[in-house]
Amino acid sequence: MALQRKTGLGKGLGALLQGDDVQVTKNAGKTDSVAKENTNTAAGSINFIKVNQVAVNPFQPRTDFDEQALQELSESIKVQGLIQPITVRQVSKNEYQLISGERRLRAVKLAGIDDIPAYVRTANDQQMLEMALIENIQRENLNAIEVALSFQRMIEECDLKQEELGERVSKNRSTVTNYLRLLKLPPVIQAGIRDGQISMGHARALINVGEIEKQLYVYQEIIDKGLSVRMTEILVRNIQQQNKPKKNPVGKQLDFQYQKIEDDLASRFSTRVKLNLKNSRGKGAIEIPFESEDDLSRILELLDW
């Protein structure tokens, strides 16, 4: 069966690789010289190399691999062979370093196969980092935190501005910015995003909550009550409203206990709830606004109306 390279790599990666038959040699440095002197294979072509001669790419941004998916890919490889080659650079006569395709490499090892098809290229460390990061960013199953970390590494280690990064990965600047902002969230929330406990939509809403304590509060509400993205956005708006200076007849801010009641009610009803105190003896009223008939019906159901 003839090996074919899959297309659709995207403008950024396509520009880096410059086609199958062109070596990446710009600013290659000392490592490239070693590879050229010792090479057994034609750079840019597909070659079968020994699996045990391939070292994992130290710049690999992916940290989690689905074991079941790896097993399924391994079984497929046993039957069909590896359709899409990995990409490596040759660093000595019998030594290669992975540029992209770690999941495929792991699956081949799991299948007990000794040889693997590979594109052999020459690249310096920065080019390797860019290629590995872009190749991974363009995969749909990369979680949002891995994407954010990859973006951050490209900016810091490849000395790119956000606009330049957007061009490399074919995304606009606002998308890049939204991913980078995830890294400002508390570690426990980042772990929740990574593990799929909350979505990117939830995370974008959480970013708009200024204080870490309140971010953690909203996050726990999402987990405990299974809040949708829309309900989370409403809760965040309520918190933002509560952060604004309030005026009331007694001429002071709500006491902590009343503020806590407001917060708890707002969380329960997923809408802004306001306590209006009439006097210092605690007399007042509770206001629960609604945005539509459907929203009113939802609140009434929560009240067991």
Automatic annotation (TrEMBL):
All copies of domain ParB-like N-terminal, residue ranges: 47-137
Similarity remark: Belongs to the ParB family.
Name this polypeptide is given: Chromosome partitioning protein ParB
Key words, A-Z: Chromosome partition, DNA-binding
Keyword NADP (UniProt): no
GO CC entries: chromosome
One of the record's GO molecular function terms: DNA binding
NCBIfam families attached to this UniProt entry: parB_part
CDD domains (alphabetical): SPO0J_N
Annotated GO biological process: chromosome segregation; positive regulation of sporulation resulting in formation of a cellular spore
Matches recorded under Pfam families: HTH_ParB (PF17762), ParB_C (PF23552), ParB_N (PF02195)
